[in-house]
Structure formats: C-alpha cells, structure tokens
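DM from R.C. (forwarded with permission)

"hey, sorry to bug you on a friday — could you get me a structure for this? deadline for the figure draft is monday and I only need the backbone to look sensible"
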Amino acid sequence: MVGIQDLGVFVAAGLMLNIMPGPDSLLIMTRSASQGWKAGSAAALGIGAGTFVHIFAAALGMSAVLATSATAFTVVKLLGAAYILYMAYGLLRSKPRDSSTAAPVLPPLPYRKIFAQGFLTNVLNPKVALFFLAFVPQFISHEAPSKALAFVVLGCIFNINGMLWCHALALFTAQASARLKPPAAVTLWLNRATGGLFIWLGVKLALSKQH
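My reply, with the result:
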C-alpha cells in the first residue's frame, strides 16, 4: 500500500508509544479530572492537530531542518519548554474553591483555550518532529512511488490511533474522578504534583540535545 511495509508492526509500536506517559497525557488527565471528559477531549483534539503539523512538516522535509540546524532546534526547544513551564506555574498556583467541597481546583477554561493548550504543548516540542523523522521512515519501502505520500499515510494512521487512545484516556480519567470524588485537598495535591511533573518535563526538554 503506497510503499508501506510492516504495517502491523507500525500500528502496534505506535500504540505502545502513544500509551507512554508524557506532557500530552498529563494535560488530558488534568483537564479531564478537573473539568470533565469534554475538556480532556478538547485537549486531545488540540494535541492531534499539533501532531498533524509535525506529520506534514516532516513529510515536506521541514523536520530535517530541526535535525540538522542546531539553532532551529534550540529555538523551538526553548519555546516548547517555556510553554510547558508556564502551564506548570498555573498548576502550582491552583487553589481549592471551597475547602468543604470536592470541587475541582483548576478554574474551568473554554474548550477552545484547552484545545490551544494541547496544540501548543505538542507543536512546540521538537522531539515530536524528530520522532516522526526517525520512526516513520523505517516503515517506508525503498521502492515506494512517493515516500512523502507514504509518510503522510503512516503519520495519519499513527495520529488516529493516538487520538483513540487520548479520548479513551479522557473518558476514563473523568469517570474515575467522578466516582472517586476526592477531597479538594487531594485534588489540589494532585494538581501540584502534576505541575511538578510539568516542571521536570520542561527542564528536560530545555536541556535536551540534538541527536
């Protein structure tokens, strides 16, 4: 199919990679727990939109610039790290609305803003671009009539599978949060713990090196 090889292996590997925790998963879980599954799904859609940017950029060769230009990689990397740290700051500053209730500690946001959060978290991470550049070509045949088309097809398959997982994660997190109904103090602690993880991820991204 358009020069694609080992499609089953690609799908299985892609699902495993999507399940691995990262800033995208943390954002979906945080928003789902504080504002419901629709908010988590809005974040997931934003992440998916950001992934499409990486897919088409890589197919057009733009990701190759990140792989070869230290300056371009550093600029995008620092922008992504700054945004993740900005989100961490908001999580760490979250406060309970009422200490006697189990209301979410994060203020609700319009879905379009949550979508933008997901989009920026993903699109400003150069590691995602480099991942596609390194991972996807392994499943494109040397005899492919159009390697760019094969790349786009594989990228879309990866992203669709990822979106299925992200929406399932949003639904599961929202339902678990509604059933457990943790006290406000526990929810506050979880948000601050997530903020701490975002700080770690932001610093890790800022210190990452080009390979």
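R.C.: lifesaver. Confidence is low (pLDDT under 50) at residues 97-105.
me: no worries. The two ends are 31 Å apart (CA to CA).
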